[in-house]
Design brief:
With 97 residues, this protein is of the alpha+beta class. It has one domain: GMP Synthetase, Chain A, domain 3, CATH 3.30.300. Strands 1-2-3 form a three-stranded mixed sheet. The protein is elongated. The N and C termini lie far apart (64 Å). The mean pLDDT is 90.
Length: 97
């Protein structure tokens, strides 16, 4: 009896395991929070920071009403920018507080 072993890299095996467990999307959502200053401009990062990301909804804490209004008007563009940075559609909606 011949046994055939399937070989793979450790990285690929870990990625496949994350996908099977449904954790790959959660990791990408967390990346939005961690990479926020790299994704948006310095001005935005100085006045708004992401609080949490769940099920495609990004919650952002804003320093004041003026910036809340500005980001409200920029929501669609921010969603596109974030998703382009990640290379996949992760953020579906932005909520400001």
């Amino acid at each position: 009896m011949n046994i055939r072993w399937k070989t793979t890299t450790l990285g690929k095996a870990l990625q496949e395991g994350l996908v099977r467990q449904g954790l790959d999307r959660r990791i990408r959502e967390e990346e939005v929070l961690q990479r926020w200053p790299d994704i948006v401009s310095t001005a935005i990062a100085n006045h708004a920071h992401p609080v949490r990301m769940r099920r495609g909804i990004l919650w952002i804490e804003v320093t004041d009403a003026v910036w809340r209004q500005e980001l409200h008007m920029m929501r669609t563009g921010l969603i596109e920018k974030i998703n382009a940075f990640l290379g996949e559609h992760i953020v579906e909606e932005i909520r400001l507080r």
